[in-house]
Every structure is written in structure tokens, then in C-alpha cells.
Design goal:
Blueprint (H helix, E strand, L loop, with lengths): L7 E5 L2 H12 L6 E7 L2 E3 L7 E2 L1 E7 L1 H14 L7 H6 L24 H14 L9 E4 L4 E4 L14 H16 L7 E4 L3 H23 L3 E2 L5 H10 L6 E6 L6 E6 L29
Helix pairs in contact: 4-5, 6-7
Length: 288
């Protein structure tokens, strides 16, 4: 059967016959049709020798009729009697996508130090100038607290290359330092950007370490903040054949990945010392 929302054209000897034919094709009565007569047809156009021209119409089911049909179909459908839990027990997956695991899990209020809760409220007040409904969450990490800003995938709090997120984090840490919480380690994140970025950084420096071992030449990261430099030192702490050092000053400070042994050249003996004697290695537990 033709869909009820479809418009059809029908030809017949007369307009009435065309209407009846359209109703039959659409499965409704002629009263439920909206009719547009395209050609009324005629008898002998050229007199006795002429040919008869058929009538032609355009027909569509009336909107009210479509709605009535939809209600009838809904009334005929049986309600769902099997619960979602029962479907899972029977090994039948329900027709919805299970939510993906998120790192944004709120900590219990009693586990959050006063300074962290104060920072959360400050950050939430700032973010609500952009999104009035945002609820900042606190996620305890190994050596810091992560202030998580949900954004529904918009990226509005991240910005290009994380610049907005970096600026927000700088402001929050400055505010809390002025309020007497200078030892508080706060990391601002949104949509798990930090986690993705940290994993990418770890993969990148692993490749630099491999290159340093292969070539016997030190490799350098791009300028990094103290938090990212610490990630590099920890990522390569147990990496064989390399040492890491923080070098440079100010916002140009970066990490040098230095091979512990220079690459042997043909005809030369391997040196027994390590490169960079006299310079202390940055440990994973402390960032300089």
C-alpha cells in the first residue's frame, strides 16, 4: 500500500472515477482525501473524429486522517511487559546504548579538604558566567585534586590546544594561593581533556627516549609547565638507557632526555662514564 503521506496522481475517464481510484490506492475513503483537479478531461476535442481526454487529479490524505490512523496504531500496540533487567538476564541486549564510563566521578564531601571545596565553588561561580547550569566536580588523584567541568562535548572550557583550560587553571591556583592555600595542587579539567593530553605526552616522550638511545644524542620536549614536566619525569623514571633533566628558565623551561651511554662509533671504545656528569638528574618525585 502506498504511504498515506504520499501525494499521488491518478487518471480516469471522469474526475469522480479518478477520486475513487485514488482512495482505493491510499486505503481510505474519498472523504479523507485532499483533491486537486489537474485536468477535468473532455469528450471529443475535435468533434466526431477527436479523441477523449482523461481527467487527472492529485490526491493526498488529509492531515486529520493521518493523525487518527497513528492513534489507532498506538492503541493496538501491546505495552512492554518485560523489564530491562529481565532482558539482560535472558541475554537479550535492550535497545539503548549503555553510557560510557566517565572519569568525572564526584568524591564524597567528607573526603574533600576545605580548600579544595572552596576552590570548587570559586571555579563554579566563574564557569556559570558561561553556563549557568554547570556543576563542577572534585576528583581526588594521586598527588592532586582534579576540578572537573562537564561541558557536554562542546569544548567551550577547553579552547584551542587547551589554552582556555590553562588560563582557568592559572586563575584558580592564583586565587587559592592568595587565600592561603599555596600548597594546594589543583588541576582543572573538562571532558577528560587532561587525561587524553597526558597520555599523548607520555607516548611522545617514550618515542623521544627511543630516539635518544638509538642516536646517542639528547632529545628535548617543547616548553612545558611544571605539571607536564613532572609527567615526563615520571613516565621515563624507569625507562632504561635514558635520564631526564629540566633545563631552561621561565616559560622556556623544557625536559631534556639524555642517553646514559653515547652511541658507539666504529673503531672507538665505549666510554665508561655517563653524559652530563656534574648535573643532577630530576627525579620523578620532584620537579625543578
Amino acid at each position: 500500500m502506498i504511504a498515506m503521506s504520499e501525494t499521488i496522481e491518478v487518471e480516469a475517464k471522469t474526475v469522480q472515477e479518478a477520486i475513487e481510484e485514488a482512495a482505493r490506492r491510499l486505503g481510505v475513503s474519498p472523504e479523507d482525501l485532499e483533491i486537486e483537479v489537474l485536468d477535468t478531461g473532455s469528450g471529443k476535442v475535435l468533434g466526431v473524429l477527436g479523441k477523449q481526454r482523461n481527467a487527472r487529479i492529485s490526491a493526498t490524505v488529509k492531515k486529520d486522517r493521518e493523525k487518527a490512523e497513528e492513534k489507532e496504531k498506538e492503541a493496538q500496540q501491546e505495552p512492554e511487559t518485560v523489564s530491562i533487567e529481565e532482558k539482560w538476564k535472558d541475554g537479550v541486549q535492550p535497545e539503548f546504548e549503555m553510557p560510557k564510563k566517565s572519569y568525572a566521578i564526584e568524591a564524597d564531601e567528607e573526603e574533600i579538604p576545605a580548600g579544595v571545596e572552596e576552590a570548587r565553588k570559586v571555579l563554579q561561580d566563574i564557569c556559570r558566567f558561561i553556563d549557568p547550569d554547570v556543576e563542577v566536580q572534585v576528583i581526588p588523584a594521586q598527588e592532586h585534586f582534579r576540578l572537573y567541568i562537564p561541558a557536554g562535548g562542546s569544548g567551550i572550557f577547553i579552547g584551542k590546544s587547551g589554552q582556555t583550560l590553562e588560563a582557568i587553571q592559572y586563575v584558580i591556583n592564583r586565587i587559592m594561593s592568595q587565600r592561603g592555600y599555596s600548597d594546594l595542587k589543583l588541576v582543572v579539567d573538562s571532558e577528560d581533556y587532561r587525561i587524553r593530553k597526558d597520555n599523548q605526552l607520555r607516548e611522545h616522550v617514550k618515542k623521544l627516549a627511543e630516539k635518544a638511545r638509538r642516536t646517542g644524542k639528547p632529545q628535548f620536549t617543547e616548553p612545558l609547565n611544571s605539571f607536564d614536566r613532572r609527567i615526563v619525569h615520571l613516565a621515563l623514571k624507569d625507562e632504561p638507557g635514558v635520564e631526564t633533566y629540566s633545563v631552561g628558565t621561565g616559560d622556556k623551561r623544557r625536559v631534556q632526555i639524555r642517553p646514559t651511554q653515547k652511541r658507539k662509533r666504529a673503531g672507538s671504545r665505549e666510554s665508561g662514564g655517563t653524559a652530563g656528569s656534574g648535573e643532577s638528574k630530576s627525579s620523578g618525585a620532584r620537579e625543578g
